[in-house]
């Protein structure tokens, strides 16, 4: 049960530096922070959906995650 909590905290921590970057609009900082937040959000949702379960219950989510990870 600790993994989804840590993933959610990682999403929040990844987005916190953007508060100081609002006026600077540094594309590198924004891109990196959003990318890390997306990856951690995927981990958060995946640990909730597939907790002690290997059945595909959200095929649309699988498609979305695949496109985000490969793209």
UniProtKB/TrEMBL annotation:
InterPro entries: GPCR_STE3
Keywords: Membrane, Signal, Transmembrane, Transmembrane helix
Signal peptide: 1-21
A GO molecular-function annotation: mating-type factor pheromone receptor activity
CC terms in the record's Gene Ontology section: membrane
TM region(s), chain numbering: 30-49
Protein name in UniProt: Uncharacterized protein
